[in-house]
Amino acid sequence: MPLCFAPDSPDAIDLHIVSQEGAEEWLGFLPPTVAEWARASGFTGGIGQVLSLPATDKLPAMAAAGYGSAITRTRGRFALAAAAAKLPAGDYRISGGLPADQAEVESLGWLLASYRFDRYKSAAPMGAKLIAPKGIDAKRIEIIANGEALTRTLINTPASDMGPPDLEKAARDLATQHGAKIDVTVGDDLLTANLPMIHTVGRASDRAPRLIDMRWGNSGPTLTLVGKGVCFDTGGLDLKPAASMGLMKKDMGGAAAVLGLAHMIMATGAQVQLRVLIPAVENSVSSNAFRPQDILTSRKGLTVEINNTDAEGRLVLADALALADEEKPDQIISMATLTGAARVAVGPDLAPYFSDDARFVAALEASALAVADPVWRMPFHTPYETMIEPGIADLDNAPKGGFAGCITAALFLRRFVTDSNYAHFDIYGWQPAAAPARAMGGVGQGTRALLDALDRILTK
């Protein structure tokens, strides 16, 4: 079900946003008996607190949502969404208390709080619906919310229903929705098309590997998004332990993220020429699985020694990035659930990214703060290049030692982009515990910041 605002209505419930600093002042405007009842109910304006006030002769029916304090709001995001999930069913019109510069972010949070993944089990919808506050771009907020919902749903869907053919279908459906062109190269045709490492990683699965190539737009700067689409990762012959394999349905989170971002770009009519490349594979175990110590030759001609078959994501991305770079677009951005090292470094809430372009960094950092989509810059630390050079091949897909794993992975990918501006996101794609506007499960990271920064990133 699309995430959208409620239509304006004379029957809407007035909703007052009350901070902890302003709670006593707000209570002072209420009739004394009502104010005392509110105090007795424990309402102090804390984040997630709600208060429903029944109609009286002097006071119409209304509600209040706690907005916390300046300090508590810095410790999380989407403070209003925490209350929205607890309000009684109805349509709500914000009547005051919400800072104008937070209206769009908090409205988006409300829509995201109403997301439900109900493909396999029914889930009660959130009863409280928001009427879009005046002054916000409601259509754009709805587009962003539904792009995020697409990302979440693709990640949440298990590999039994989200293999390479299913990911292809999701991309085709999106292309049809927006009038984009799409081509898909499947199975042994990958060898003919000189995409050998995508074929090698995915050949052990009975669901054939493929490269999804979608294009949209015919004017403006050129932007290519590359998303890792490993629909399930067993680790290959270097088999993962059960504890590490449990969340591997989300190893296509990079593909899910770029498809969600592509929806946002196309639906908002951004003036760009967009290309989306997704290598969609399963890293499976079979008699024809690729092996440790194999040496692969990539599309770019660089040879890669395989020192761990569980470092497969960078292999499929490498061929896709080399293909992307051949057109010399103004910007290439890859997104992938690539390394555990990134999670250890910054945890699940931040989206680590790599870029040497000061203009890109400045635009992204400003947007991330403005739209509450936190990112953290990591270094393309050139002295570590020697760590990915094994000696008998050009590159090593899994350097020994365990140090700087997310950096060496990013450096590996950068070897395949030589003619374009390049940024890489090593995202987690998963919300490990429920938080305001973010149910436990798949989640988008970095995409809203990228959308907001797009014009500045692509302006030369």
Give me the secondary-structure topology.
Layout: E1 13-18, H1 23-28, H2 32-40, E2 50-53, E3 62-66, H3 70-73, H4 79-84, E4 90-96, H5 103-113, E5 128-130, H6 138-156, H7 164-178, E6 181-186, H8 189-192, H9 196-202, E7 210-216, E8 222-227, E9 229-233, H10 242-245, H11 253-267, E10 273-283, E11 295-297, E12 303-305, H12 313-325, E13 331-336, H13 340-346, E14 351-355, H14 358-370, E15 375-378, E16 395-396, H15 405-414, E17 422-426, E18 430-431, E19 441-442, H16 447-458
Parallel strand pairs: 1-3, 1-4, 4-5, 8-10, 8-13, 9-10, 12-16, 13-17, 14-15
Antiparallel strand pairs: 2-3, 6-7, 7-10, 11-12, 14-17, 18-19
Mean pLDDT, rounded to whole units?
A: 96
Q: Could you tell me the number of beta strands?
A: 19
CATH architecture of the largest domain: 3-Layer(aba) Sandwich
Q: What's the CATH first level of the largest domain?
A: Alpha Beta
Question: How large is the share of residues in beta strands?
Answer: 15-25%
Instruction: Show unreliable segments.
Output: none
How would a textbook summarize the main sheet? 9 strands, mixed
Give the CA-CA distance, first to last residue: 39 Å
CATH topology of the largest domain: Aminopeptidase
Class inferred from helices and paired strands: alpha/beta
The number of helical runs is 16
InterPro entries: Leucine_aapep/pepB, Macro_dom-like, Peptidase_M17_C, Peptidase_M17_N_1
Family: Belongs to the peptidase M17 family.
Domain Cytosol aminopeptidase: 308-315
GO molecular function: manganese ion binding; metalloaminopeptidase activity
